[in-house]
Amino acid sequence: MAARNDGILLAGRLLLAAALLPAAIGRALNPSGFALTLAATGMPYPNAVATASVVIGLFGPLLLGLGLVPRLVGLGLAVHAVVMGLLLHRFWDFSGAVARIEQELFLAQLGLAAGFVLYAVTGPGGWSWQGWWHGGERAPAPAPVAAARAPRKRAAAPRGPRAAKAAA
Description:
Keywords: Membrane, Transmembrane, Transmembrane helix. By secondary structure, the chain is an all-alpha fold. It has one domain (2-133). Helices cover 69% and strands 0% of the residues. Helix 2 (31-40) packs across helix 3 (46-66) and helix 4 runs antiparallel to helix 5.
């Protein structure tokens, strides 16, 4: 069962990484064009934001695929996906078919962010760099719960000076 879960977690990590790579490669090949796109939205410091987005977009999927620092990578990529969705898919500025398309793209970005948060919570699994580094250690299985519990003892009579006054 554990090997199947590790395989599913590996497949999920690779699918999330593959979803990011096309946009990241396009931004890396034309960072100035991406900076101009950001500048058109009114973003302050578009070159710095574009450079940060390219770095996150290229190294994030690499770290994701290898399963390194899952909480940091998962939460960082989730924030990146939400911010890029808010900056690039502003469906509230449009109307008609363009608004619907931009809204679908924005919701796709939110779906990616949800996947990254789930990755941050579940971890990379055993088939990852982290799993290899830790030797595939897993938490021990919980002890089985006894079917029949021992009967409870009755409470002892209260002791002390107040108990003596109450009895008198």
